[in-house]
Amino acid sequence: MSAQLLAPxxxxxxxxxxxxxxxxxxxxxxxxAGLLATALIGGAFLCSVLLFLGFDPAGGAQVAHLxxxxxxxxxxxxxAFQVDALSLTMMLIVTGVGxxxxxxxxGYMHDxxxxxxxxxxxxxxxxxxxxxxxxxxxxxxxxxxxxxxxCSYLLIGFWYTNPAYNYAARKAFVMNRVGDVGxxxxxxxxxxxxxxxxxxTVMERADGFATGAPALTAxxxxxxxxxxxxxxQLPLFTWLPDAMAGPTPVSALIHAATMVTAGIFLLVRSxxxxxxxxxxxxxxxxxxxxxxxxxxxxxxxxxDIKKVLAYSTVSQLGYMFVALGLGAFSAGLFxxxxxxxxxxxxxxxxxxxxxxxxxxxxxxxxxxxxxxxPSTYRTFLVGTLAIAGIFPLSGFFSKDxxxxxxxxxxxxxxxxxVAGAVLTTYYMFRLLFLVFFGSYRGxxxxxxxxxxxxAPLWVLAVLSVVGGALNLPHVFGGHEPMKHFLATAASxxxxxxxxxxxxxxxxLMGFSTALVLLTIWIAYGRFAKQATLDPxxxxxxVPQRWAARKWYLDELYERLFEKPYGWLSTNLSALIEQRVMxxxxxxxxxxxxxxxxxxxxxxxxNLSTYLFAMVAGLLLFLFLxxxxx
Length: 629
Prior knowledge:
Elements: H1 3-23, H2 30-53, E1 62-72, E2 75-83, H3 85-108, H4 115-134, H5 138-156, H6 163-194, H7 199-206, H8 214-230, H9 239-242, H10 248-257, H11 262-269, H12 271-274, H13 278-299, H14 305-325, H15 329-356, H16 369-372, H17 374-388, H18 394-409, H19 411-436, H20 451-466, H21 481-487, H22 502-528, H23 544-548, H24 553-600, H25 607-626
Antiparallel strand pairs: 1-2
Helix pairs in contact: 1-2, 1-4, 2-3, 2-4, 3-4, 3-10, 3-15, 3-20, 4-5, 5-6, 6-8, 8-11, 8-13, 10-15, 11-15, 13-14, 13-19, 14-15, 14-18, 14-19, 15-17, 15-18, 15-20, 17-19, 17-20, 18-19, 19-22
């Protein structure tokens, strides 16, 4: 089957699932809805695999044009899908990891009364992300971009009877809209400068601009503002940890397969513009570096199992942005890929722990689950080793690629990233040891999850182990196949080069690995041999208290934006709404009513009166005409 037929099928299948399940949600059982949703997203994955197997990188991108979506004067924007190395990579991640999350959800959501609605939204979420990564132009990407924003709002607030969850959903929605303003302005500027929104044409015409051209700097800065909203970077990252209010499979989908990777994708897709805008790349680098370290320090003091993972996502996204800022686009996307494997594994493992403990999420009330939940423990251990960057798991290779580029650019950046890796290792093993080692500190009756939940864990565990082979570096005998594959789609990838000697690369890897192993040993002594439980944040000394309080960013935003906006709304309501608009509306309505009342009296029903009025009117018109009025 040709790409022209297969490509539209990939987003069409989850869209069909969303429509069918939503329409039949009162008739379908939750289990049947889950099976249908999983089968359809699995079908999308199969189509993606077939597209990948039939794709020839040397032949360039294939575009499936469905129809002209917008056609005004010379402007033509089509609903078209682009199949190339970059979109195929993302399609395989979204549909592959998405299928496992759908399957897992059948077990996790089995007793939820709105299970059918949940699966309809989950399919819709996947459809929106596929639109985002498959679009042949910025406009289609933007539709998917807004779609994932809407779906995340609906899924984060899925249990809408809880006001705190509704607040978290609104927070995610509003903060993403802030970033979207930058994206929309960026699209307008792209069209003004290049006369089109098609990716291929824009990237070709970008070659005619000089490095540092103001137009390109402005475009890339605006696109970056959009990216930091969706991919949760400073100052727009505080929505992501609160998004843990949604069901755990939603958290896995947001953090691993969809949504937060959208910003990384957008920058790699636009890499031809970013390599010509060094100022923007510096901004990307600094933002990613500060976010990675800030989120890592917060993660050390979190006690909610899902929030620890949420801050680790923010931190790892920071690593990816650092790679993009360094111009190492393939290293950034390689880390997106391996992160999708082990972060989905960790979130689904956390969900299995929560399921085993009847909803408990505080790691201080866990412990000793190694024997009660053996499959969850073993797979969670794999995910933890992978995110810590232990050889030969996938995280080791993807993180090492970023560290090597960082060292080549500046040893200081390398040192700060290694510090972030040490913090990541510390809080992840703190989490592992407090949950699975020692003795149980809670009141529930832990039990292992059913096979429909543990099977996806094992598949993701295997991917977390072998995923590094996708881009095996030269020092390990590989030829970085993923880098060369992506270079056929994103011209910026072809410009990145690593000039370190093999001895230096081995030394850097040995140094970072030694620090990580030392950190694991320290965490083992502190949390496994004898569990050390941190007190509440207010009882911690400064600056631990500041880190535990998330550096007071939420409080800062509340004072800078929420309270002034609330004050402004309240006072404008009292002044404009109640003193101006309401009297104005009441006055206009009352005047119209009085005029109507006067005119109503003309309608007397007396024929002679009407004839008299008609004759008077004719005489008046005759008088006016004769006098030239």
